[in-house]
Write a structure and sequence with these properties.
The protein is 26% helix and 40% strand. The protein is an alpha+beta fold and 139 residues long.
């Protein structure tokens, strides 16, 4: 809305009023850029959420057994929606202090079954107390 200047003002008063009430600027470019950025951010958030909600492989440590001071035997259950793809799961052996005393990448070869139970043996440099599955990923 532009300010209407009364008719009987001097030039100095008109300039003073013009400085006090400058003409309105158009904010369309900033609005358009802002909407594009919000749309891009929203699109990226939806895409990232969709991708993370459908993991390519899911693993679970089925069992472990401390065999000796230098070995822990484990069994890993792996579920893949696409069993034709190979996977790799990382299993760690831990001491009672929580220190990692052994680690092994367990290979899960392609197969026809979506679920697989893979046995493995972890070599340790100290006696382990437990074993944990840290991650599973498609190869």
């Amino acid at each position: 809305m532009d300010v209407r200047v009364p008719e009987g003002l001097s030039q100095a008063d008109r300039q003073r009023l013009a400085q006090r009430y400058p003409p309105r600027t158009r904010h369309w470019p900033q609005l358009v850029v802002g909407l594009v950025l919000v749309g891009a951010l929203l699109g990226w958030g939806i895409w990232a959420g969709w991708e993370k909600s459908r993991p390519g492989v899911h693993g679970q440590l089925y069992s472990y057994r401390v065999v000796s001071d230098a070995q822990v035997d484990v069994q890993v259950n792996v579920h893949r929606p696409d069993p034709s793809r190979a996977a790799r799961c990382t299993v760690q052996a831990q001491a009672p202090s929580g220190e990692t005393v052994g680690e092994l990448d367990v290979a899960v070869p392609p197969s026809e079954a979506k679920d697989a139970r893979i046995p493995a043996s972890i070599k340790t440099y100290l006696r382990a107390h437990t074993a944990i599955l840290t991650s599973c990923r498609l190869v």
